[in-house]
Amino acid sequence: MTGKGRLLIVSNRLPLMMEEREGNWFAKPGAGGLVTALAPVLRDRGGVWIGWPGTTEAPSVQLRQAIGRAVADTGYDLVPVFLDATEKHFYYRVFANEVIWPLFHDMTSRCRFRPEAWDIYGRVNARFAGAVGEHLQTDDFVWIHDYHLMQVARHLREAKVEQRLAFFLHIPFPPLDIFTKLPWRRQLLADLLAFDLVGFQTQRDRRNFARCVSVLLPDVASVRTRGGYSIIQHRQDKRRVLIGVFPIGIDQAGFARDAAAPPVAERAWYLHENYPERQIVLGVDRLDYTKGVPEKLEAFRYLLQRWPQHNENVTLVQVVVPSRWEIPHYEQLKQEIERLVGEINGEFSRPGWVPVHYHYRALARDELLAYYRTAEILIASPWKDGMNLVAKEYCACDIEERGVLLLSEFAGAAAQLHRYAIMFNPHDITGMAEAIHQALDMPEDERRRRMRGLRRNVRAQDVFWWVDRFLQVALQRRLQDFPVIDEFVPGGSSLAAET
């Protein structure tokens, strides 16, 4: 990283969650690739992480003191942004998760376009911007994350902040015909153009964003592209915004190391004992309608009907991690999944063999890694994903290199992994079943060849590569270094090889 300033990370949540037990506050460490990748950079360079601490309780002295004590453990400053229950409901549940989430995943029928939610989303984004402004120093670089905080840069610019501001979207960006359904489409696009750098997971997302700007804001900015980047120039002040693609990775070395550790190896051995002479097809998904879990179950049922030789020789282990249980769509999805599991097991179970083992809970890390090591096949079937890190985690943990990855062509990870994974259309139940059948019958030498290729990719483009690449572009390259010669031309396919 170049420059002498600090790094300010701004995300919906802090890298820890505050919990109250018996009148006392405790910090629960956060997990995930973002924390793993950015925490060392903040400790080394110096910086601040700004986010919500996970509670709607009033910010008492005791709560602030507990957050202050947590700073000693993180090695960098933590700045909490507090929300009350009403703000959490409209900003987080309604606007973020019932407007932006379904819209950006091409599911407009699930959107609830409530004006009060838009207003409170703006109010909360302004509060985050205020927290940034209070802690900002002259040479700082501000990196804002995800769809919860798309208006922060605009509020900072209105406050005359001139520091470099970057944004990364962890979910897909929709095509023009979907994005135009948003009542506040022009304003949200203009808000994103207040950043200096906007990063996406795939070229498809970058193209979608560039086309939306070109069509919806022709009076505000011009759009040109070259070399995989788009450059958007404001017509009024000639300021340029760089639009790039930065596919996020995982801590590959950490997953591989932990998967080889004795506790995980022992768990994996016991799992092998519980599934004698059977191949395990593993699914690990958050409870969400974008993940394609019902379709996966239907494909597994068709597999057992179409190729009965697999009966009693294969088990589907489907893990569903609870999520957003208070939203009605999610409870309905849970009931549908449980109905399908019951139907399949009722139809095909035999003495000593139950075809689907269903877990509705979050697995402990050692247990999850043991399943990754044990499963011969992992199937990731999202209708649409920003990336799908589960697919990469599975490859990192397959230290014996004998597993097969089955991947939806609409997962963001398909752009990187399609060469060695078995690809399928998650809307095609028959095609998905055929992909499972192909994986079950795949010779060992082909399995190893494919998995070695997948592991090379995941290792080369891990989460630290992602951080380095983003910050190098943001901090080292000037916009003048990206020559602009071609007007943006709408178009392009969403197929895996072209994303």
Q: Can you tell me about this structure?
A:
Helix 11 runs parallel beside helix 12. This protein is globular. The protein contains 18 helices and 18 strands. Helix content is 44%, strand content 19%. Strand 10 and strand 11 form a beta hairpin. It folds into two domains: 268 residues, Rossmann fold; 209 residues, 3-Layer(aba) Sandwich (Rossmann fold), CATH 3.40.50. With 499 residues, it is an alpha/beta fold. Strands 5-4-1-6-7-8-11-10-9-18 form a ten-stranded mixed β-sheet, sandwiched between helices. Strands 14-13-12-15-16-17 form a six-stranded parallel β-sheet, with helices on both faces.
Name the descriptors.
alpha/beta, Rossmann fold, 2 domains, disordered C terminus, 6-stranded parallel sheet, 499 residues
Assign the structural class, choosing from mainly alpha, mainly beta, alpha/beta, alpha+beta, or little secondary structure.
alpha/beta
Stated plainly, the CATH topology of the largest domain is called Rossmann fold
Q: Could you name the CATH class of the largest domain?
A: Alpha Beta
Uncertain runs with pLDDT below 50, 5 residues or more?
483-499
Strand order of the largest sheet: 5-4-1-6-7-8-11-10-9-18
Short characterization:
This protein is α/β, with parallel strands linked by helices and 499 residues long.
List the helices and strands and how they pair.
Elements: E1 7-13, E2 16-21, E3 24-29, H1 33-45, E4 47-52, H2 61-74, E5 77-80, H3 85-104, H4 115-135, E6 141-145, H5 152-158, E7 165-168, H6 176-179, H7 185-192, E8 197-200, H8 203-216, E9 221-226, E10 229-234, E11 240-245, H9 252-259, H10 262-274, E12 279-286, H11 293-306, E13 314-321, H12 328-348, E14 356-360, H13 365-374, E15 377-380, H14 389-397, E16 404-408, H15 414-417, E17 422-424, H16 429-440, H17 444-460, H18 463-475, E18 486-487
Parallel strand pairs: 1-4, 1-6, 4-5, 6-7, 7-8, 8-11, 12-13, 12-15, 13-14, 15-16, 16-17
Antiparallel strand pairs: 2-3, 9-10, 9-18, 10-11
Helix pairs in contact: 3-4, 4-5, 9-14, 10-13, 11-12, 11-16
